[in-house]
Amino acid sequence: MGIYLNPGNGLFSEAVNSDIYVDKSMLIDLTNKCLRKTNKHICISRPRRFGKSMAANMLAAYYSRGCDSRDLFKDLKITETENFEKYLNKYNVLKFDVRGFASKASGGKEMTEKLIKSLKRDLLKVYGNMDFPEDYSLEEMLGEIYDEHRVPFVFIIDEWDCAFRVFKNDTEGQKYYLDFLRDLLKDKEYVALDYATGIFPVKKYGEHSALNMYHEYTMTSQKRFAEYTGFTDKEVQMLCGEDTDMLEELKRWYDGYKVDNNEIYNPNSVVQAITEKSFDNYWTKTETFEALKDYIQLDMDGLRDSVIKMISGERIHVNTEKFQNDMTSFKSADDVLTLLIHLGYLTYDRNTSEAWIPNKEVRQEFINCIEDGGWEEVMYSIRKSDDLLKATLSLDERKVADIVEEIHRQNSSVIAYNNELSLSVTLSLAYYSARKQYEIIREFPSGDGFADLAFIPRKGMNVPAMVIELKYDKTAEGAISQIKNKNYTEKLKAFSGELLLVGINYDKENKMHECLIEKIIK
Q: What is the 8-class DSSP label of residue 221?
């Protein structure tokens, strides 16, 4: 047993004994099925504070010969599987967190050399009697140990991609580190399992992966590992018990990550919100927003427009395939947006190739980033949104039209007004503050079609439901008629009290907006 070789189970014990612990032990069942097989190289990438280190500590506690973890796992789901006892504490485990070495180095090569030196030192503490030649490489030592003792190694590499985040421009150092990992792990009989975690997928050079032995599971495609990316809806419901109000707020603040067919919550934020009994931006406080700010300010064609659409609640198409899996090789807006997906600032549906801002916590981070300058027209819209909502609820048609018109003028250089979709983006941005009281749904399916915007009151909010229909070069009266004729209010009948029908038209020739509001008392 050493610092890196066959670590104990203390770190995982701390997690299991915490006030809030969600059982993710069935992850072990997936890794057990990969032991000593061609798919034994697994690379899991997900954002910071999404449980990567906890999973790494759990796997080390399960496989390590340096501890007895039977009692630690006795109440967890993994004990119900047939192979639980077979692999429990049966392997030599080499577990290391690359961050610790990066923080003490000036570049990728020095980091790698410090890592090699530390791993060798740990091996010599246990296997020093084998009298290795002084010039033996790490992989030669591991090969000889395996030949002598026939106990294979499980490698658990936490923050494997740290070199690409800390030493962003050190290309030679990065290649030196990748060559080390390839020589250490690829085609080696002593490897029973290779489990690497990080934020980025494996680095690409051109169209090729530098470590092509890995089976990768990323924020664009987690596949069978999807439910282990964060907390599932079912798990959060269990944490909330009968408290439906807390569940609804947790969903609004921290849910929204689309991981294959799973809805995933940010686990760190959920735990802190329940512990502190307060909803706040916990995840975004773990790192300065300067990183996000730097990326969304990049001069990439279409990037600014995409950010505005997402802040307003829209989804945008993103091609994630060309991203080079680092923080510097950007050739298009899609590359920047793909980076933000991996960092957790956006979520992604691989079935539709669409990305969007997942929840209130992250959306506020975007607002923080644009407040400091360069996005004045967008911030103007957001600041006017309280006035617009108040005017709408007061049935002040003229004021609604005037505010929308002013917001349009402010944003005309950013959002081209050429169809109802552009008008919809502007309106979604203009009603930004309404999200406190409403769930806003664009293209809301109801009756015989889709309403442009539906405003559904959140639980406990004493406000009327609203349907807004938009027209371009037509009439506001025609918009109201369409709401009625196509029965767009059908799915809003469950809401008692008042219902507002809002029609807004933009006349391209005179560049004027017209608004009609009709109140229905049910």
A: B
